Amino acid sequence: MNYWLVKTEPEKYAWSDLQRDKQTTWDGVRNFQARNNLQKMQVNDLVLYYHSVSEKSIVGVAKVSREAFQDPTTEETQWVAVTLVPEQAFATPVTLDQIKKEERLQNIALLRQSRLSVMPLTPEEFDILLSMGQ
After folding, report:
1. pTM given for the model
2. d(CA 9, CA 19)
3. Cβ atoms within 10 Å, residue 4
4. What per-residue string of b and e applies to 23-37 under the rule 16 or more CB within 10 Å gives b?
5. CA dihedral over 51, 29, 116, 1, signed as positive or negative
6. Could you tell me the CATH superfamily of domain 3-132?
7. pLDDT tens readout for residues 101-115
8. CB 41 within 8 Å of CB 67
């Protein structure tokens, strides 16, 4: 199993929207590195859901239910999407400030490549963040 973090602006598509819809197509990614990460996602991989810009916090865990397929928002075949389903909401959102203060997370991609919208996590990073949110 692989672990990931995806970022979204809560004003565009919040965790509550994913919970309401029960699944979403994670599309519209137009960065090659983020696209490559989408292509590596496998069914049942776990994904931390991060509200960017206004909230800057991890708010839940989603799961990949469909691996990479042609992004339906473009005819350009180089772009892909995946399907995510909600798994569980965090009891307490984990803020960017908390992540920055956690010594064991100093190498996390969220801090090193802050503009990347889809990024891998190590199993240890995932477990630390999960425990922080419970």
Report:
1. 0.97
2. 15
3. 23
4. ebebbebeeeebbeb
5. positive
6. ph1033 like domains (3.10.590.10)
7. 999 999 999 999 999
8. yes
